[in-house]
Amino acid sequence: SIKKVDLSGFSTKDISFEANFNYKPAEERQYLFDHIWRQVKDKFYDPKIHGVDWEGYRKTYEKFLPYINNNFDFQEMLSEMLGELNASHTGARYYASNSALTTANLGVFFDPQYQGDGLKIQEIIKRGPFDVKNTGVTAGSIIESIDGEEIKAGMDYFPLLDGKVGKNVRLGIRNAKGKKMEVTVK
């Protein structure tokens, strides 16, 4: 947390702070793989690395990186690679993080058959954001944008709702009759 300190009265006050970043897990795993491989090459206690072909193992294991989509599997692959050293107490660990962004839910079911741009609302869930606020949005309406970001056919829209729980979300809507409107829900 960030605090403001009043030096005259020695009091502190919490300052609200939020920062977004574009998390790229595949790039992060590539960096970590390179770093771990290099650390072993440069700092392993035996300069001959127990006689193993460390360059060869890099090529053998690195080819799996594009197919790994979670940190648990990444940790397993690193442990296998480090196990090739045949050295005691080498391996990799994965500890799940609780710091993931929470993704807001709009309280609707989307039409899975709809193929066009946007998200076609099939049903509005009772007591959900659209129902509670009485927005006038009905089944058959299409959400065309979230906070100004246009939604294209087949697009993963969940990142647009990351970190938005409890916050206002601005939606561009086209109702079943073709009328466009902007609605804000929380």
Automatic annotation (TrEMBL):
UniProt subcellular location: Cytoplasm
Chief subcellular location: cytoplasm
Protein name: MdsD protein
Native organism taxonomy: unclassified sequences, metagenomes, organismal metagenomes
Keywords tagged on the record: Cytoplasm, Hydrolase, Protease, Serine protease
Organism of origin: human gut metagenome
Molecular-function annotations in GO: serine-type peptidase activity
Gene Ontology cellular component annotations, sorted alphabetically: cytoplasm
Residue ranges constituting the Tricorn protease C1 domain according to the UniProt record: 25-83
Tricorn protease PDZ domain mapped to chain residues: 133-185
GO biological process: proteolysis
